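Ticket closed. Logging final result for TfuA-like protein.
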Amino acid sequence: MAGRGDNPILVFLGPTLRLSEAEKVLDAIYLQPAAQGDVLLAAHAFRPRAMILIDGQFEDRPAVRHKEILWAMAQGIVFIGAGSMGALRAAELDAFGMIGVGLIYRWYRRFGRGPLSSPVPDDAVAVHSGPPELGFLPLTDALVDLQRSFSAWSRLGAVSPSERDRLTAIARNMNFRERSLSAVLQAAGWAQERSRELRQQMIGQKRHDAILALQQAPTLLAQHSGTQQDGDWIATNTFLRDLEAGGIDSNLVNTYKLKP
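Final structure:
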C-alpha cells in the first residue's frame, strides 16, 4: 500500500470530509486536524514524503504555525493545502513552496484573509464540530459554502439577487459556532420547508476542494518530490519557546535529518 509504507503521505483531516470518503480516494495515514507542533511531531513519527493539510485546530489549541510548515518543506517534505485551514495556509505560503489546491485556496490567494467586509473573511472556512469520537462531525456550515450556494441559487433563479445579498449579510454577521443554512434562513424569516428544499442543493466547496487535493496528491508528489524550500530555515526564539510551552521538545527541530 503506497500510502502506508515507508515515507507515507500524511493527511490532517477533520470535519471537511468524512474519513470513510477520504480513504476511498487516497491511500494515506489520516491524522486529526493539525494544531501547533503537530507537523513537527508527525514528521518525526512517520517520516513522510508528503503532508496534506485540510483541517486544523484553532480554539482549544493554538493553530498550526507557518514556521513549522516551512520547517517541513525545508526537510524535503512536499506540503499540500486545501479545503479549510490548509487552503488558508497555502495561500499564505505558496510563495515559499507550499502547494494550494482548489477554489477556496485561490480565493484566499486573490483576496487574502481579512475583516468581515472582505470577500473572504477570517472565519470563512471555520465550522463548529463534534469531538474526535464522532469523527469531527460538522455541526454548522462554513461561510464559504453558504456564500457559494447563495450565489449559485441566484444564478439559477432559485433566489433573487436581493435575497442572495440579504442571506449573505446575515451569514457573515453570525458567529461560526452558530452559522448554518437553517439558522440563516430562519433569521431571514423563511419557512422551514424552503430550508429543507435548499439544503438538498447546498454546495460543499470545502469538501470538493479536499477531495480534489487527495485526487491530485500523487501527481503533485511526483512533480515536486526532491524539492525543498529555498534558503536556510531558521528557528526563531519565539517559535522554540512556543513549542516548549506546548510540551514539545524543541530539539526535534534540529534532529530530523540526523535520523536514518
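The chain has two domains: 9-118+206-258, 142-201. No further action required.
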